[in-house]
Amino acid sequence: MTIVKDVEARGTQHCETTALGVLLRHEGLDLSEPMLFGLGSGLSFVYWDSKSMPFPFLGGRVKPFELTRNLAARLGLTLHVAETTSPRKAWDDVAAVVDAGRPVGLQLDSHHLEYFGSKVHFGGHVVAMYGYDDHDVHLVDTAQQGGAVRTSRASLAAARAERGPMTARNRSFTITLPEHELHWRTRVVPAIRACADAFLTPPIANLGHRDIGKAAKLVPTWLSRVADPRHDLPQAALLMEKAGTGGALFRNLYRDFLGECADLVDDTHLRTGHKLYTEAATLWTDVATLITKAGETGDPGHLDQAGVLLHELSRVETDAMQALRRL
Fold first, then answer.
1. Among 25, 41, 149, 275, which residue's Cβ finds the most Cβ atoms within 10 Å?
2. Per the database record, which ranges form the DUF4872 domain (predicted)?
């Protein structure tokens, strides 16, 4: 058995920030999960729907691995990424890192992981690997999934090799801190501005504040869209609150990030943004509650109320990001 020494297997709320936390703590940098999320400019919004999808998806963050790339670039970290279509090379890549005494990050499809509570395909899941033997691998996943967990090498290989939306080609990665002192506190304002710019002026139309307005119009139609409202609507709400989002579709994490930043930077615009995202987090949880009630009761009025709140959320988050962009 090979186990990396001194790995703190701290499972947190979101998969990518959980893995980043494991890798960075082993390098000597211990930041809170909200700080990792915010420095990676992780907040976003997307209403994702297509003919091939049985039900629309509400996403509250940037696409998988973009947060990691943002964080590395912003802090001057060395991010080494390996991808391959060869199962043998994929294993050799990660085993070599663990053999050298370092944890390694993996992007994979959570459906194949034996410990995973919900057997659904999600190709953007991220874990940290810190050990293995002839049969199993040792991983760190979110607190919800158990923190320090194990799965078979065969299941890990299947998860890494899966093809489909948001998957990567057996992606693994390591992070190395720069040799000079890392002044991460000076990077919080650029991270906030970058996130605000992307939210207010996204590169494509179906991202950011405009898409929340789109959701406000379409969520009230969901009862006619779903085959099994009693299952599908509560499941959609559960994904918003419990599926590694930290609650409120990642708004709790960003609210807490802004709160930490307000202790570092004395700025009126930052305090305004923090106040508005505190309001937004509550509203998103209210939206999830209404979607659940609509599924349980079949009453479209709950979805109409959710639409009203989403219109308000579009305004609140726009105002928040406009303030934060003026930092």
1. 41
2. 155-324
- Please check the confidence at residue 190 and state whether its pLDDT lies above 90: yes
Residues ≥6 apart with Cβ < 8 Å to 88: none
| Assigned token pair, 219 | 């969520």
* Residue 166 near residue 124 (C-beta atoms within 8 A): yes
- Candidate CATH numbers 3.40.50, 1.10.10, 3.90.70, 2.60.40; the one for domain 2-30+78-176: 3.90.70
Mean pLDDT of 52-74: 92
Alpha helix ranges (H) inside the chain: 15-27, 33-39, 66-75, 87-99, 153-161, 188-200, 209-218, 222-225, 229-241, 251-264, 268-297, 300-325
pLDDT reported for residue 57: 86
Is the distance from CB of 194 to CB of 39 less than 8 angstroms? no
What CA–CA distance (Å, rounded) separates 62 from 140?
A: 22
Question: What pLDDT is attached to residue 2?
Answer: 97
- Please state which of the four CATH numbers 1.20.1530, 1.20.120, 3.40.390, 3.30.70 is assigned to the domain occupying 184-325: 1.20.120
